[in-house]
Amino acid sequence: MVGSYNAQQILRFPQKLEGSIAWNFQFTSTTTKYCSINLLVVQDESIKTMVTTLTCLLLGSPSEEPFCIQVDDQRIVDSVKDAIKAENPDIKCPNRKLKLYVAKKNDGAWINSSDPLLRKLKTGMDLAEIGLLTRDPIDTLASVREIFSEVSETHVIHILIKVPDSENSHSTAATLSVMPVFDEGWTYRWKEAFNKERVLPEALPPVADLESFFEGDLPVKIGVPESFYRWSQRFYCSERIFKPTNLEPCVTFLNEVGYRAIRSVTDGDTKATYISYWDDSIRNVLEFVLSGKSSRYTIEAPLDGGPATPDFVFVLDSVCVVRGEEEGPKPLVAESPRFRKFDQVPWRHDSTQIRAHRLNSYNILHTCPRVHLLLAVLNMSRLLQSIASLCPATGKDEYRVLSRSNGVEIFLEPTRVTKTFLPHKFFAASEQEVVYHVLDRKTVNSNRLLRSDHDKRRMIFAPRGIATKPANLKELFIAICGVLWGLRGLHAASWMHRDIRWSNVMKRNNESTSWFLIDFMDALLSPADSSSGAHLRRENHAPDIFDPNRNHTTAVDVWSVGYLIETSDVQGVDLGKITAFKDELMHSDPSRRPTAEAALQRIMELEKEYLQEIKTKKKETEQNTIAQKRAAEDSDTSPSSKEQRTA
User: Are 122 and 61 a contacting pair, CB within 8 Å?
Assistant: First the structure.
């Protein structure tokens, strides 16, 4: 036996019971609160009764010690629940919601009081192990003797108890009444002090130390009312997060983050039921303490053959510092896909696959692990700013989240662009699906619509380009040719883009030098009346779009190509014919502007002339260089040498 014991009482009943002698020893430990198993035999002429003492453990309750109950072994297991509730008045749920499990490991051994697993069961830290132990609850209609007939060992746990958080009298709702209504800057001051404690780049911990770092005390603890603090102490590690204060409680933090992160949750059958819980536990916490931007999208089977999009990303200083892969509920076994998915995710950075290391598991269905996860996420947030600062330029902007003034959210990933619209905006945007079908048929030089999700009001496009203007005249020719090539096919189908600006002309995000058109949200069939373009800006669109006396046609796109040349910022060369070509494209009379086909032919001619001029100038430069070199050699040669060379 482990530890020292004092005999409380020894009862010896040398009576025969079913052909054997029953001995009973009842001990109470002086060093622990664990009790041994005791059999009290009461025998008279009419009755044979055995009272069994069982040791129980509340799962996910780090402040609770194991406790003992005594039950008649001829009663059904449901009576065990009555005994448990009698020992724990805080458990208010009906018996049907109280789940009991036999405390045996896979090898059939009882969980010993000195087993390291005990701490994990109390804190709810090891999701896989707990899942294995709680796969099958005890049959409540079975007898106690039937379930615990093999109970003979001492110093072990026999029953694991799972209490639904929402039925527990210690719910978070009970603490709301003690919370002050207003936050007088206390959360702001905590947040400011907390962010000053971020880990500097040179002090980032090695991977081997991350787990202990995540479980460490916050450098600046969050002030909460004393009543809330007392309630939180029943959960593992809460004292590492909070400090009691009735003078300066962080009301805003608790209202916007705390209650959401640790509130009771309900089990679900689908992935969608868990999204809000994941967001409350991770996404919302990061957005509250850091100035980054997050978003969540799921493309599990990309039509363009690219990699699946992370379900969740958190971007800080144009660097994706946190990404999440999520999966719905499955049978909770250690080798199930639910646990294998982490190892199968192709984590990449700058096109290079990186190693992944699992740190911990958190069962977010229970409050205690959620408090534990809150501590981990807050500590993790102290590392992210430095991680972002160390990211090389090639790794920046891999993922970005942009918010437009019209309510459109744009999520940029390496190969795709996802736009999410407000409800009234999505209807208008989705009507443009028809023009993208035209683009596919005409093989227009533009982006493509991969998918339109009406339920989530989002549209997914590819490829993702780079928003940059041409750096020189050569690149300008390439960009204008790309735009006109796209317009040629679009206009052939009687469609017009109507919003061609450099912000809607992207350079391809690869090694090639080419540009393509994007954003056909204002595209219409030609001709169209002026009312359809009332939302466009006059300073960067063709004037005929706004003329109430006539319809506008595909000529407005030709005008916009001239506007691209005018706003290209290409300098240091004599544009000459290019300027004249631009003026022709932007003619005030739409009928005198060339078609996209004619403009394409003209720009190709100008490019050819330009390249020929470059070639001629290069040849002249080479000849001049040779002549200058010979002249220099002649100046360094003596007269006699010149005469000999001449002879």
Answer: yes
Q: SS3 string of 10-49?
A: EEEEEEEECCEEEEEEEEEECCCCCECCCEEEEECCCCEE
Tell me how far CA of residue 218 lies from CA of 191, 500, 573, 575, 633, in angstroms.
Answer: 12, 52, 60, 62, 76
Around Cβ 58, how many Cβ atoms within 10 Å?
23
Residue 318 has pLDDT above 50, yes or no: yes
Rounded CA-CA distance 419/435 in Å is 17
153-162 tens-digit pLDDT: 678 899 999 8
- C-alpha–C-alpha distance, residues 237 and 243, integer Å: 12
228-247: pLDDT as tens digits: 898 888 888 899 999 999 88
The rounded distance, in Å, linking the Cα atoms of 114 and 93 is 30
Query: Does residue 76 sit in the same domain as residue 114?
Result: yes
With beta carbons less than 8 A apart as the criterion, state whether 520 and 439 touch: yes
**Closest listed residue to residue 69, CA positions, set 38, 99, 48:** 38
Beta strands in 348-408 (DSSP E): 348-349, 352-353, 400-403
32 and 179 together in one domain: no
Whether the Cβ atoms of residue 514 and residue 486 lie closer than 8 Å to each other = no
Q: Are strands 515-517 and 505-508 parallel, antiparallel or unpaired?
A: antiparallel
In percent, how much of the chain has pLDDT > 70? 78
Residue at token pair 């916490």: 285
**Cβ(278)–Cβ(212) under 8 Å?**
no
DSSP letters, 504-548, are: GEEEESSSS--EEE---TT-EESSB-GGGGTTS-GGGS-GGGG-T
Do 50 and 134 belong together in one domain? Answer: yes
Residues 111, 140: one domain? yes
186 band by pLDDT with thresholds 50, 70 and 90: very high
Number of domains making up the chain: 3
Contact between residue 495 and residue 525 where contact means Cβ atoms under 8 Å apart = yes
Per-residue pLDDT for 207 more than 70?
A: yes
Encoded tokens for 126: 């090891």
DSSP for residue 236: T
Q: What is the pLDDT of residue 202?
A: 94
Q: Model-level pTM?
A: 0.56
Confidence class for position 180, pLDDT limits 50, 70, 90? low
The domain boundary, picked from 164, 183, 215, lies at 164
- Beta strands 524-525 and 515-517, pairing class: unpaired
Phi, psi of 504 (to 5 degrees): -110, 15
Helix, strand, or coil (residue 294):
strand
